[in-house]
Amino acid sequence: MKNGIGFAGVGDAIDDFMLIKEATKGVASNGKPFLTLILRDATGEIEAKLWDAKKEDEALFVPEQIVKISGEVNQFRGRSQLKIMAVRPAQPTDDVYISDFVEKAPVEKSVLADKLTEAIFEMKNPALQRMVRAFIKKYQEDLLTYPAATKNHHEYVSGLAHHIVSMLAIAKELHILYPELNKDLLYSGIILHDLGKLKELSGVVTTTYTTEGKLLGHIPMMVEEIGLMAKELQIEGEEVVILQHLVLSHHGKAEWGSPKPPMVREAEILHLIDLMDAKMNMLNRALDKVKPGEFTERMFAMDNRAFYKPLFEEN
Amino acid sequence: MKNGIGFAGVGDAIDDFMLIKEATKGVASNGKPFLTLILRDATGEIEAKLWDAKKEDEALFVPEQIVKISGEVNQFRGRSQLKIMAVRPAQPTDDVYISDFVEKAPVEKSVLADKLTEAIFEMKNPALQRMVRAFIKKYQEDLLTYPAATKNHHEYVSGLAHHIVSMLAIAKELHILYPELNKDLLYSGIILHDLGKLKELSGVVTTTYTTEGKLLGHIPMMVEEIGLMAKELQIEGEEVVILQHLVLSHHGKAEWGSPKPPMVREAEILHLIDLMDAKMNMLNRALDKVKPGEFTERMFAMDNRAFYKPLFEEN
Amino acid sequence: MKNGIGFAGVGDAIDDFMLIKEATKGVASNGKPFLTLILRDATGEIEAKLWDAKKEDEALFVPEQIVKISGEVNQFRGRSQLKIMAVRPAQPTDDVYISDFVEKAPVEKSVLADKLTEAIFEMKNPALQRMVRAFIKKYQEDLLTYPAATKNHHEYVSGLAHHIVSMLAIAKELHILYPELNKDLLYSGIILHDLGKLKELSGVVTTTYTTEGKLLGHIPMMVEEIGLMAKELQIEGEEVVILQHLVLSHHGKAEWGSPKPPMVREAEILHLIDLMDAKMNMLNRALDKVKPGEFTERMFAMDNRAFYKPLFEEN
Amino acid sequence: MKNGIGFAGVGDAIDDFMLIKEATKGVASNGKPFLTLILRDATGEIEAKLWDAKKEDEALFVPEQIVKISGEVNQFRGRSQLKIMAVRPAQPTDDVYISDFVEKAPVEKSVLADKLTEAIFEMKNPALQRMVRAFIKKYQEDLLTYPAATKNHHEYVSGLAHHIVSMLAIAKELHILYPELNKDLLYSGIILHDLGKLKELSGVVTTTYTTEGKLLGHIPMMVEEIGLMAKELQIEGEEVVILQHLVLSHHGKAEWGSPKPPMVREAEILHLIDLMDAKMNMLNRALDKVKPGEFTERMFAMDNRAFYKPLFEEN
Amino acid sequence: MKNGIGFAGVGDAIDDFMLIKEATKGVASNGKPFLTLILRDATGEIEAKLWDAKKEDEALFVPEQIVKISGEVNQFRGRSQLKIMAVRPAQPTDDVYISDFVEKAPVEKSVLADKLTEAIFEMKNPALQRMVRAFIKKYQEDLLTYPAATKNHHEYVSGLAHHIVSMLAIAKELHILYPELNKDLLYSGIILHDLGKLKELSGVVTTTYTTEGKLLGHIPMMVEEIGLMAKELQIEGEEVVILQHLVLSHHGKAEWGSPKPPMVREAEILHLIDLMDAKMNMLNRALDKVKPGEFTERMFAMDNRAFYKPLFEEN
Amino acid sequence: MKNGIGFAGVGDAIDDFMLIKEATKGVASNGKPFLTLILRDATGEIEAKLWDAKKEDEALFVPEQIVKISGEVNQFRGRSQLKIMAVRPAQPTDDVYISDFVEKAPVEKSVLADKLTEAIFEMKNPALQRMVRAFIKKYQEDLLTYPAATKNHHEYVSGLAHHIVSMLAIAKELHILYPELNKDLLYSGIILHDLGKLKELSGVVTTTYTTEGKLLGHIPMMVEEIGLMAKELQIEGEEVVILQHLVLSHHGKAEWGSPKPPMVREAEILHLIDLMDAKMNMLNRALDKVKPGEFTERMFAMDNRAFYKPLFEEN
């Protein structure tokens, strides 16, 4: 079994550096204040209670602070909880950095950038290619570091680019199996479909939703961005509307946030590829944490199902 | 009872000018061709069959052609059908015009224009006022002639402006009863909420959906337009996003085409005022056609309900 | 920011009289008994824990007892909780009364009574007018003091009459904008629609549901009452059935408790006015508690939405 | 196979008296008028077209007229249709009566009356017994002749009483198997549950819905009737409310017309017995018309299912 | 009121033997470990906390261990909780056995076995009879001891057989009232419908789901079993498929686990009898615990309804 | 545009051999009999009316008869209809065969067989490989000729094998992109998932559902078959249950016919690959029939959507 809090089981002893993600003050039933800490390393997160917290503790143990912590993993109401034995803030001499404690895509940023460039090189339709190129230029930094979501799938550094690049790989193969697919359109749709998240989400670490994101959502925001960009680049022709349609419809149904369902072949396939890669990402990471013969925890974003790892898998 | 095809009952004789809205060729069970005509005047429409149609007839009786027709109203499969006795195309000397045969708002265009201007004068927030003023200028002609829909409610010439002006009147009174409402925001939302229909619908007569309208819908198109206009007018501040939110959410629920539900007080009230005016428009026109003690036909857009006119109404 | 527990934030000190709404005994993790108190003043309510509660405390701190309490507002599992420093029952010399601690409509009872009388004066249909007059006479006291519900909207003293009077004001304006509406019918429907709550709810303070209310609900109970009253007053004619229909259908849909949907124009509008006033009541009170740029708490009766107060509102 | 139009197959010759249930005028594609007749005998109904109908025919062939008809059963758009060879109105000398052509319950009226009396004799609770007795007296004639519905189940003369009596038989046995059931309450609920139909439906032959029935429905009408009757008989005690609850909740769910779901044991069982008898009635009559190895037609009131008669049934 | 934990109210003192059903370790807010015990006797279960649990305690107080416990029933977050005064493991000399602490069907195993045999004797169709007989022989022991479910209804020793035998009794009476029903088919369906639970559930005490049960469910497993058994017994003819259909469809709807809805008369009735007996079982046991004039707790498997026991019930 | 009835437009003349798929007798409004023929060639089908049909015609023009027909494509109620000029049964000398008129997979049977063999060669898990090999042997002929459905997707000769082979191609690529997938399990699931259709459907031409298919459905039938085969081959181990789970869950949701949702990684992916290939098959064939700038007809199995072919597609 691998190292890290994401892989720790009940009874395991912990003695390591971790990052405070959230810290909330509470009052215990004996009337004394305590802190509820959400701690994380690059493999996962865990809750911990700091009992009898003093005023100084409240000032020391705040979000984005790294701490050295030792304790034991217990179970509380069916969820893991870290029982704290000792905790102190990290010192400069500890030589630890926030970036050590956040989960990252399993592929390097530079590789992701290269894959995106490759895909654009394969495109032939000038309108689509210019549009995509302009967006990649506009958002180059954020696009390579943002997560694809705050939770569920690809919710780690470079998650968005990782998701796009995996989807492009599926699209490439599907285009060989089904040559009727317009590869340029599908590629553009894949690269742009979630770029609205760069404005919907607040940033890379301890990500939340922006006010604009809450009130409009990434889909209409990106449809608008495509319209503005087309105007700026003076691109005309149906490509613009079709690309807006691919973005608009990629959640598949009105109830899921797409006011129009897919009505173009590549829009339908974009929706399916998005589903497939998101589900594989969630399933692989959840099954990675259980042994053959066990079920994972229930996964909210998979309709609350628990998945089984068959006995004949060699883990 | 009023005059016009919308008020004619089974057995009534008809001898009048009407406009051909649709003409479709068919083959009768005796093997001879016939034409199915949808005829209309300013009060409604009716189907008619022209049996034994000759090649010349097919050329004469086409959409947007006015005809002089005499016949009798029959019933066929539970719906009214006009039995044609005689029919001829209108002549220039007949002195009849297409505009005579289309339904119009019960309020003059100039009155509607004045009411819009009045509302803008009442507004004080400069960002909102400039935005609204710019849109009214941009679309001034279409805004005063377009219908609000292809069917169901306000589906007549100037229907969109009629709908907006009625909604403004409700908003004005609600603002007095509930002074917490931001009148400027509510007015702007009302005026802009359906302007996307000017691009979603094909025109004023024999209206259909544009390709862009089918693939994107008027809501995301208008959200984009507001973004473009704000950029053009260099308007900044939260007014832009809030106005986009009002437009985006005005259908109330994801299943009804709003990817975000109302999350601002005026957005919620805009949705309710929209519902109220649309329903009053449908109900009044349907109940106008029945006598006390009768039910209307089932109305699809009112959840397929038939409405009853109580006996104590004086019609 | 206004005074009162409904406006207190985390960290605020409290030193005031409050009313005990609920008191429940529990056992702490150290094995000692404690009391969970729900305390309220005229602006809202808060939970508090009385640790190490003695037998005497259980007898002293009971529902409808007023207490003098000092403490500090803390946060517990995301909700406010009052940390008790000192608490004692109120004395006669404190000169405080239960009626000081319950929320009341922002309009005086006498004004509400006058508004109802005015509305009845405007009515011309004798059957409807006699019916409404008889009910107002029958229930005059309760009608002016009952809340409209146990929670969500108008859940305060005189809430029912406040709701009715606000709805009448909307109806009056709508009747001017849409003269097709039968004002007498709409007024009668508004005044009677929720009177069944006088039998469904247990009373004015610490309101619960009666057994009859749970088994039948206010809608069928009021339909029955109208039938009985018509018999008593020997009123005949369709007005009785139509009025029963307005009451029966005012929740709009079978799933929401109306076995028949609105099938009369005024029934549909009654339903919409009811929605509009209930929502305005909930929204205004929730938004009153947040600052510009903030979201309210999620509101269960508004489909669990949180509402945003734009930055450009002057609070 | 049995005799009668309900059992006739495509190709069968017909030469018999039938009752006209509906007659509608139409115009054929050759421009000549025709009549669409819905004809019935005691076993079922069939559509027939009378081509080239003259003015006299329109006057002769009207609803509730008995006709002597000969023809052949054909198929038209997947449904049976009677091809008319000859048709004439019945003469007094033909010695046929409307009552010969309507379907009747398979049990005699007098037997049904006796069974109801027996059930009342078994009851011991005086409040319930007096209430039921009063209703049976009030509606004695209609109760023994009305159908239970206009279509689907027990839609024949005495259908309502037949349905009640079958349900009482099930209740009697269930009470033996589950002695916890309050037999008196269950019996009263069964006898009264659908009596509102006597006011919701227009009569015994060619039954439609009354205006009151459409606007209120039989359930709230019967709840009101119980309230009025209790007042008249000066019955007090919880029996009245519980009986109203049984009637109110007997459709089981709000979506099915019960604003409150069953919340009393006997209410839940009443709902299930109602379902069971209605379904057996529909299934037996539909399966009676097919041979082993065949499926019935799709049955709308059985969720549009077609039922299979196994090969090992001896028909 | 009856004896046993299922009937104990808040404040009652307890001094009795109970069985530990579950034991979970936790950490209290003072940092000390505690055990959460779920204790049961033959009438119900209750939660209890063992504070300051030592390592020895963790080893002593484990599932399926009988304990002698004294304490008091308290309320915690609206649910009963046993406050432990003293607890010790049972000794051999205490003369108590696991079987004393599990709920059992109110009918003896031998009686249930006889009733099953009787039913088989009544059957005449040889294919159905041989099939049923073979299954009863195959599963004779488990069939008489298994519960019908892990919770909700008949979740006690011999619950499955008790459920089957009650259903057979209803079927017998229904067959008399509706002689069209094929008794042999209905009996076979009732006896076999839930036998898949013998493989879906893990056993008689502290029952859980098997992996196979989770992945396939008892319905498809039993359809397969019938196919295998028919092959083994060399039974041919439509009886096999029809019996598989009865089992497959007995949950009534796809959403409830039946991929095909009932399409044979006896399948529909089997579904209704199953519902009726399950509901009577749940209702009788819940109402047994409340007094006249009270509501039961909300019952999850009854659509979360609370049921009322009328005042005129003699308890 | 391609040849064949599937590509013919209104006004096109037809003079070709076609196969009668259905023939229904009707009576025209002039009282004369006619035949409604559904005619097909390898590209599609069309309705035609044979007016004034004589007894001989009824005998000549029957399903599975090939005819030489000339006529013109007309439009009737919005659908194409062939107006018959001349028609005669085909003669032996015409040298035409039923197999010429049925649609076939675009890939040869032998190629499909080879692809299946290849896939099995790639498998390494002996239990899975033996199982799959045994089924392919058992059904070798039908598996290569059956359609995958009666309508919607792959509803042509060899459609089932074509569907399987396309899915295997996707699976092969996905396994490279996501090496966590168990290729053997996914391959087995794909090959077996729809084999139950060989018993659910009646055959290759004019395919309908068998009685067993209607009552049980292909999913439970195949789960049973796997159980029987495992017994026959004496295969034990979890592979059998997991394979049954893949088949059982491949429709994804209970409402869609899978009583258990996918709970194994490969089950989830099997469901998605199935969807993807079915949708591509429907989309490609529908879009093949329209020109750039046009929408397809509404497709029932694609949630009734019409799909758009962008202008920039080169057809």
From TrEMBL, chains A, B, C, D, E, F:
CDD domains: HDc (cd00077), YhaM_OBF_like (cd04492). Gene3D superfamilies: Hypothetical protein af1432, Nucleic acid-binding proteins. Keywords: Hydrolase. SUPFAM superfamilies: HD-domain/PDEase-like, Nucleic acid-binding proteins. Residues 163-279 form the HD domain. PROSITE patterns: HD. Coiled coil: none annotated. This is 3'-5' exoribonuclease YhaM. It comes from Virgibacillus tibetensis. The lineage of its organism: Bacteria, Bacillati, Bacillota, Bacilli, Bacillales.
